[in-house]
């Protein structure tokens, strides 16, 4: 098997022992290097936070912890960057797409058995489904990669925000406005990450490639991008108005506006993450209950993203917990791609999409006749 990035296709079929390996065994046997790297990043951020907390409590709260946010944010950015660049085994592709056209008259005995076990009896429809699933898998990997890029940009911006706050509470007008801009930018990248998670969910939940092999849009992705841009522009305008006219309203100040935007962004992120995790709860994927529980916890803490600005130690706790759960999600999705389970999920759900309408018509007709 060719070693390449996790977003590329494996060159050779994987062994039977590999495909039947559980997520837990995969972690212990085949993902030790990346797990060790992620674990080192998690331990480093947690250790830095604990050290800062102990120093602050030991010095009567006078210990300056302003360095902690940029330090932890930068370490987490490095961890995410390593996730993007460290080579992993490639995800599994559908064998036989290139040499066989959709009209191929014959397939091997093994493939015939797999075809029938997946619910197909017509070779032409089977070859068509394989071609479509290959495109769907490519869509998912692109959205998954984009999600991590957005997270990387978010933590880079959070590092910059932490460095600005190290200057103390009293900021010059120019530096204060720059801090507002960085805060809004952080919310923007958090929203972009939420959008990529939404795309991952839509690819798992709905047909995104038409039967004639033309790739369809994710229910018009342009509209989703427009919503994020509109949200960011409105937040920016409100902050500008509040900064220029402080006498309009006591509650309408830049801090309250940005906190409201962060709460909204966090709630949206939690909702979308819950949808994504719920879609991963499939018998086709073989998800463990403990793993799903932790991923649902990750969805639950998303709205607490706002605590980074208003409750320092609670925010640091959430930030460290979020990194651990992000890494767990990364390992799980990587296992699904490498083991072929994600491929199996797409090929089975493709068969369900093909027959859902006809099956419902038949069942609803049965209910009507029975009534």
Short description:
This protein has one domain (3-8, 67-355): Up-down Bundle (Rhopdopsin 7-helix transmembrane proteins), CATH 1.20.1070.
Task: Describe the overall structure.
There is one protein chain. The chain has 371 residues and is mainly alpha-helical. The protein has a single domain (3-8, 67-355), classed as Rhopdopsin 7-helix transmembrane proteins. The chain contains 13 helices and two strands. The protein has helices spanning 16-19, 23-29, 32-58, 68-85, 109-117, 123-165, 173-205, 221-244, 254-280, 289-301, 307-310, 312-339, 341-370, and strands at residues 3-4, 88-89. A two-stranded antiparallel ribbon has the order 1-2. It is globular. The protein starts with a strand and ends with a helix.
Looking across the biggest beta sheet, what order are the strands in?
1-2
Could you name the CATH class?
A: Mainly Alpha
* String of helices and strands: EHHHHEHHHHHHHHH
Largest sheet: 2 strands, antiparallel
**Low-confidence runs:** 1-16, 97-104
Overall geometry comes to globular
Main structural class? mainly alpha
**CATH architecture descriptor text:** Up-down Bundle
The CATH topology, please?
Rhopdopsin 7-helix transmembrane proteins
Mean pLDDT: 79
Query: What is the count of distinct domains?
Result: 1
Give the number of helices: 13
Q: What is the straight-line distance between the termini? A: 58 Å
Fraction of residues in β-strands: under 5%
Fraction in helix = over 70%
Mind telling me the C-alpha Rg?
24 Å
Instruction: Find the count of extended strands (DSSP E, 2+ residues).
Output: 2
